[in-house]
# Entry
Amino acid sequence: MLSPEAIKEYQELYFKKYGEKIDSQTALDLGIKLINFTAAIYRPIPSKEYKDMDKHEQKHQ
# Structure
């Protein structure tokens, strides 16, 4: 669940991006979808994998 403050902030961000006002229920629905999407695709990078990426980047600079 999103707090009333988070819903209001989402409405403001949505308006700035799309120039369209949305009601609080729509903001809540979209905010929850965004949170669920982020949770589905986010995964922490294991430290070994991060170190390997860092080594690779250093070689190619």
